[in-house]
Write a structure and sequence with these properties.
The protein is an all-alpha fold. It has one domain. About 75% of the residues lie in helices and about 0% in strands. Helix 2 runs antiparallel to helix 3. The protein is flat and about 60 Å long.
Length: about 120
């Protein structure tokens, strides 16, 4: 179904009016309410950073696995391409091993350093 410019304008205007109505129907914010800002300690920040880095490393290892699979599928029997796929797959496995072992190694390092 093709829509005209006028129909899109009416739709956009209706959506804007709906959003304005929702925004105005809420309870007003009072200035005398205190704003609470959660302050994290250094160990909490480090733990959060470890979780983020672990997630990113896991995503990169998964990307290498997908690339290895695509290289293998597109190799077409070419030994050089198959070898490239195997190397990429090995890199993926090493990445997963690092991601899985890193929290344990960090725990050991914390206990050694007294943290």
């Amino acid at each position: 179904m093709h829509r005209t410019v006028a129909q899109f304008r009416r739709l956009a205007f209706g959506l804007a009016l709906t959003a304005l109505g929702i925004a105005l129907s809420g309870e007003p914010a009072f200035a005398d309410e205190p704003t609470v800002i959660a302050v994290k300690t250094l160990p909490q920040v480090i733990d959060s950073l470890i979780v983020w880095i672990t997630g990113i490393a896991f995503a990169v290892a998964t990307l290498f696995g997908v690339i290895a699979g695509l290289l293998y599928l597109s190799a077409g029997g070419d030994p050089a391409q198959v070898e490239r796929a195997k190397v990429a797959f090995k890199a993926s496995v090493v990445g997963y091993a690092i991601v899985l072992l890193a929290p344990g190694l960090l725990t050991i390092a914390k206990s050694i350093l007294g943290g």
